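_Per-residue structure_
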Amino acid sequence: MANDAVIIELIEGGVPVRFTIADGDPYNKGRLMEIKNPRLAYGTWNNNDEFIGITCSEKVANDGSTSIALWTKGIFDLGANAAVVAGERVTIGGNNLIRKVTAGDLLHSNVGITLESSSGAETVAVFVGK
């Protein structure tokens, strides 16, 4: 899928945490995931989804697997849906994308802090878990 996260550096091994997922859902390695109750991860689709981590591996639909490990700490290249400035907090900005946090965003939807600026919709380095 386009806009998959690309590892730049895994901090403390990326601190992978295992979550439950639906067997029928396919995910590429590098997919931004949101959390649902109870401890259920889904791919991000909408602004302000509640980010929980980035898939460590591919998940094939209907392969019998109902769990996946997610990286929760590291520096990743992520696709931004608009311009961002280095040092800004970012949140989910649509289908596997990020955008800068605004005043109306939920505090817990934070993905991380940008480490570089962009002039438009492009890939930027983000410190996830910060």
Summary: The chain has two domains: 11-71, 74-128. The radius of gyration is 14 Å. Residues 74-128 form one domain.
